[in-house]
Design a protein that fits this description.
By secondary structure, the protein is an alpha/beta fold. It contains 11 helices and 10 strands. The longest helix is centred in the last third of the chain and has 30 residues. The structure holds 5'-O-[(R)-(carboxyoxy)(hydroxy)phosphoryl]adenosine and zinc ion. 5'-O-[(R)-(carboxyoxy)(hydroxy)phosphoryl]adenosine binds next to α5 and α6.
Length: 342
């Protein structure tokens, strides 16, 4: 049995968890920095690093207490080594490396995007490779063919804004507070339920082009033009939110279907923060059911950044190859780090 402590600190969430290869997830805890960054309208890297420093120690104590474990019961430590904000990554990696040195146990740097991709397996251990994955976060929008652990092939990606970024920027231009993505989604859902006055449908970017790439910056610009011409009240904000979300959801689903046809896969895995979007989850579930395929979503709290996915991913790698952990005490993180080997 392997009990792995997982540490996530790539951006604005400090996530800590303990995963056991025998008993599954034993405990997890999260500190979100939303309040720290709200007044600046976005993540301030230096403040993010400082906040990780403030919270990492008590979160580790908290998960140990929840799991009924002592530090010396941990067998290995997995930490996010990139991609992400360098200062923020350094907090988690320095902590992980120091603790592993003190306890004389292995430490393993985990790829943040791989951890997102595997988060759905936390609640669905029966989910096996290969599968096709839609990774939709604040920094990435990719369609990926997951062939095996550590073996990922990029099918397509956004040529400009990530979908989460487009959600956040559209929310901001209509005066919603940070982080705008979930707030915009809430407005769109409410507009759906209340049958809000409609604005003309937004374009579905890149659907008329072959392949699996995306483009979302035009949608954000389109939203800005419509917003400027509108009365800029609650009603128009909700209608634009709905038109924006409808366009995003339909575009993502069409490209997912294309990718599944291409790979021949029967399984679609959704990962990343935007995977928490209710409309996307509902529409993809309906679409996948209609074509007899299966779709896997992590539960919403494992869609956004968290320590559970890092502990789990580290555990899978260590089980596959117990010697592959960091062999020295050098602290190395990578702000940019492609997931694909090719
Ligand atoms: O994966 P994540 O927590 O962090 C990154 O690695 O980027 O994703 C955060 C992104 C943000 O852009 C946030 O606005 C978006 O996910 N997001 C949502 C929802 N919840 C989070 N976007 C749309 N609908 C949501 N419900
Ligand atoms: Zn993330």
């Amino acid at each position: 049995m392997l009990r792995v402590l997982g540490i996530e600190s790539s951006c604005d969430e400090t996530g800590v968890a303990i995963f056991s290869s025998r008993d599954g997830l034993l405990a997890h805890a999260l500190h979100s920095q939303v309040v720290t960054h709200r007044e600046f309208g976005g993540v301030v890297p230096e403040l993010a690093s400082r906040d990780h420093v403030k919270h990492i120690v008590h979160l580790v104590d908290e998960v140990l207490a929840k799991a009924g474990m002592h530090k010396t019961d941990i067998d290995a430590i997995a930490y996010t080594a990139g991609p992400g904000l360098v200062g923020a990554l350094l907090v988690g990696s320095s902590f992980a490396k120091s603790l592993s040195f003190a306890l004389n146990i292995p430490a393993l740097g985990v790829h943040h995007l791989e951890a997102h991709l595997l988060a759905a397996k936390l609640d669905a251990p029966e989910l096996e490779f290969p599968f096709t994955a839609l990774l939709v976060s604040g920094g990435h929008t990719q369609l990926i063919e997951a062939r095996g652990l550590g073996n990922y092939h990029l099918l397509g990606e956004t040529l400009d804004d990530a979908v989460g970024e487009a959600f956040d920027k559209t929310a901001k231009l209509m005066g919603l507070s940070y982080p705008g993505g979930p707030l915009l989604a809430k407005l769109a859902d409410a507009a759906d339920a209340q049958d809000c006055a409609e604005v003309p449908a937004f374009p579905r970017p890149m659907l008329n082009r072959p392949g699996f790439d995306f483009s979302f910056s035009g949608l954000k610009t389109h939203a800005m033009m419509v917003w400027r011409r509108s009365p800029q009240d609650d009603q128009s904000r909700a209608s634009i939110a709905k038109a924006f979300q409808d366009a995003v959801v339909e575009t993502l689903i069409t490209k997912c279907m294309r990718a599944l046809e291409h790979t021949g896969s029967q399984r679609l895995v959704v990962a990343g923060g935007v995977g928490a979007n209710r409309a996307l989850r509902a529409a993809l579930s309906t679409e996948m059911k209609a074509c007899g395929r299966q779709v896997y979503f992590p539960r919403p709290e494992y869609c956004t950044d968290n320590g559970a996915m890092v502990a789990y991913t580290g555990c899978l790698h260590l089980l596959e190859d117990r010697k592959q952990h960091d062999s020295d005490h050098a602290i190395q993180v990578r702000a940019r780090w492609p997931l694909m080997r090719e």
